Amino acid sequence: MVFILHMSARELRASWRRLLFFFTCVAIGVGAIVALRSIIQSVRQGLVQEARTMIAADVLVQTNRPWTPEVLARVEEHLAAAPVLERTDSIETATMVRAEHGTSQVARMVELRGLEAAFPFYGTLGLQGGRVYDHSLLANRGALAGADLLAQLDVAEGDRLIIAGHPFTINGVIEHEPGRRVGAFTFGARVLVDLEDLRSTGLLTFGSRASYQILLRVRDDGVEPLTRRLRRELRDDFVIARSYKSLEDDIGEDLLRAENYLSLVGFVIVVLGGIGVWSVTRVFVRQKIRSVAILKCVGATTRQVLATYVLQVVLLGLAGSLLGVALAALGISVIPASLAESFGGVAYGLTGSAVVQGVTVGLLVSLLFALVPLLEVRRVKPLLLLRGGGDAVPPPGQDARGAGPKPGTGRWVRELPTRAMAAGRSIDWLQAGAGVLVMAALVVVASWQAASVRAGGIVSIGFAAVALTLYGAAWAVVRAVMPLASAPWFPLRHAVISLRRPGNQTRVILLAVGLGSFFVLGVRALQQNLVSEFAVELDRRGADMFLIDIQRDQVDGVRALLAERVGEYGRQARLVPVLRARVTGVRGGDVNLESYADVRGRGSLAREYVITYRGGLEENEQITKGAFWDSDVPLAPDAEQEVSIEQSIHERFDIGVGDRMRFDVLGRTLEARVTSVRRVEWEDSRSGGFMFVFRPGALSAAPHTFIGFVRGPADTTARARLQHALVTRYPNVTAIDGREILARVRRVVDNVILAISIVGGVALLGGVLILIGAVAMTKFQRVYEAAILRTLGASTRLLGTMLALEYCTLGLLAGLIGALGALGLSWAVTRHLFDIPWRPAPGLLAAGAALTMLLVGAVGVIASADVLRKKPLSTLRAE
Predict the structure, then answer these.
(1) Which residue in 115, 223, 702, 732 is deepest, having the highest Cβ count within 10 Å?
(2) Using CA atoms, how far apart are residues 715 and 545, in angstroms rounded to an integer?
(3) Are strands 108-115 and 189-194 parallel, antiparallel or unpaired?
(4) What are the phi and psi torsion angles at 875 (to 5°)?
């Protein structure tokens, strides 16, 4: 063991420069894993600690319908049997508010919440200026408002807001509020009032959309039993119960999925580094054949020599892993404070489990990828050094006394690695078994990182398929270009010959660069598809303002107002009738649901749907089965009603054309026959987006409202005046400015694009490092050739041209294969995962292939600078 340690130290001291990129490749992947896992784990730990604060209670019971005496009595019965310590009620609704006086008379949508004195049980309702919240601030129609609302309405503390025609005095500015999840989608700024004051405004009338909540503080041992009992007993009454523990589980599950996915991406980057490890080790072993033979001549055993190099790999893998941890710590330290604040001010830092996982993966990948090449040292015989390559390890079927170069000559030294490996023409079962073991271990590591055996297997199989394609393409291109070996132009002829030079890294370079190109171009192609689809959605129809709760007798007036204020865009505004309904029964050939209990057993089929009626299809709809009526003529009330269903309803619940469905619409039963199945392009939901569309008929006479899709004025002041005119003339109508919402979505999309671009860039960096290492490790073979060519009169320019042609050919092939793979990846993901139209992006892929060719050519020439600069005399003397 002392000999092994001493030899490992000597080898590292002598070879650390040529192995520098070995642990750099490992460091990049390990750094990605540690950083991604640490960030996600930090966020999860921070949010889990605040789980109670997120609902401001231990248990939250809520419904979107007013409490009926019967349902409330049942709730009280369950609460009486549970260890409830405190209780308070709350109601939330969305409405429009404006300033009573001031320079701005713009109406803004807000989320209005009525509170009782006991709120909140957990967390602190923070006010600007460090003031302490007290419920007395809401007495006598007092209100607390968000700072953004004050800025929008140009008001301050002490001013009054008009809510449903009633004045409320602003007594404080909300800084943070428990019970409101950070980052959740909102319809507007927050306004808090007393619960009884909210009830007195008249906003909570029949048909109003509101959330009625009961917040409970419960002894720890009673939280989950009470939550389960409420869910089980009250689900038929449209009552939802959740605890802080269920919220904690939801957050943990979502973040765990994100953590495992991102770690899997990091694992892919580590595997790219592992390819570089394999490449380096393979060439390194070939360079060390003579040293191994000498060691065996002086008494070293194969086990000792193999252990020396395995220990060297472990030490390099550990160094790379620790460097990756340092890179992760550096990356986390530069995370912007604004990003941390968006997750509730979570303190980011390295986590112990992430560091352990990253270092373990780095060591495993280093060892696994280096193991197979290292086993080559078993086949080096001491006699190779003493008697010549052919005598020691003759290939099967060859005479050991066959002619060969004289030992000690330059040709013998150069052919020594090839002769040492000549016995490899027979099957080495140990090496083959090690290869199988490596593949199985990689599947296990991938499954560990993804927390899913299936996901790990799929990633490993896909990665292997692309790698085999690239490896096979390398073999094919070498054979395909061989006719060019007789080309009259010397640089081209020599570049083609170099592609099949013994020990050349043609396959390794194609594999590393091709995989990196595939990954980066695939990510960019997906990004371009998403951005293009987003742009199409914004351009089509151009609706950026939405009107809610338009009454039937207000339709003509709203149209006239829009035409007056917005001109042509106002006359093109679409007002769509909407109602709410539940499926209560189905009678068909494949499914028969007689009662609502049967429907509820089908999961989401029992939820409340928004439905509409119209006489034709929208632009984003396409009939897949049956026939649409295409008629605005209403059916008679006593005629059989017709309904068109969305394709997901047909696929998930086996409901098809000809089946009859029963609906509960505003307490009345309506039966309809399914006459068609529609595919809806949901990304363009502003042109449609309804699961159930009825033929005009019975629903036309039912009480319902309209929603409007309008392209508002471009000028901010004109938009504000339009909203003010709407809320003044029609106080019940809610106007949502879509530009603000779409801007928020655009920021999210930009952040996602930035994240995937960074990941893709890291993968590309790994591929470039692998390329540099592969080129650098083959320099020892090129030095002698360059010296001979220089002696024969070749110039540096000629040698550089030869290298550029060789590497540009490899780069072009790697780029083309990577671009084709990215094309297939973007098609599969956009069509089968995102379900959006596929755009092949030929310009991007062609540019990517060209840039890959230029990058590989430039890196190949630059990394071979020593070959071009070295004087031929020193090389020939060494021979």
Answers:
(1) 115
(2) 13
(3) parallel
(4) -70, -45
Rounded distance, CA 709 to CA 724, Å?
A: 17
Alpha carbons 788 and 795: distance in angstroms, whole number: 11
For 91, the token pair is: 């109601």
Residue 217 β-bridge partners: 86
CB neighbour class for 703 (10 Å; exposed up to 12, middle 13-18, buried from 19)? exposed
Q: For residue 497, what are its two tokens?
A: 């010959």
Q: How many helices (H) and strands (E) does the chain have?
A: 30, 21
Asked which of 186-200, 375-389, 640-654 is least confident by mean pLDDT, the reply is 375-389
Maximum Cα interatomic distance, the chain, rounded to a whole number of Å: 110
- pLDDT (0 to 100) of residue 391: 38
> Angle at the Cα of 234 (from 231 to 238), degrees rounded to 5?
100
- Helical residues (DSSP H) of 540-581, grouped into ranges: 555-566, 568-571
Write down the pLDDT at residue 184: 43
SS3 for 738?
helix
pLDDT at 760: 55
- For residue 373, the one-letter residue type is P
Structure token pair of residue 806: 């060789």
pLDDT digits (tens, 9 = 90+) for 552-595: 888 888 888 888 877 766 666 788 898 889 999 999 888 888 88
> Do residues 790 and 862 touch, judged by C-beta distance below 8 A?
no
Nearest to 22 by CA among 12, 33, 9: 12
Give the SS3 label for residue 820. Answer: helix
The amino acid sitting at 662 is R
Q: In a 3-state reduction of DSSP, which class is residue 798?
A: helix
Q: What is the DSSP string of 52-77?
A: HHHHTSSEEEEESSPPPHHHHHHHHH
How many CB atoms are closer than 10 A to CB 484?
15
What whole-number distance in Å separates Cα of residue 18 and Cα of residue 282? 13
H or E element, residue 581 = strand 574-587
* CA nearest neighbour of 225 among 38, 364, 78: 78
Q: In a 10 Å sphere around its CB, with 0-12 CB exposed, 13-18 middle and 19+ buried, how is residue 781 labelled?
A: buried
What mean pLDDT do residues 289-305 have? 79
Nearest in space to 271 (alpha carbons), one of 766, 756, 764, 757: 766
Give pTM, 2 decimals: 0.53
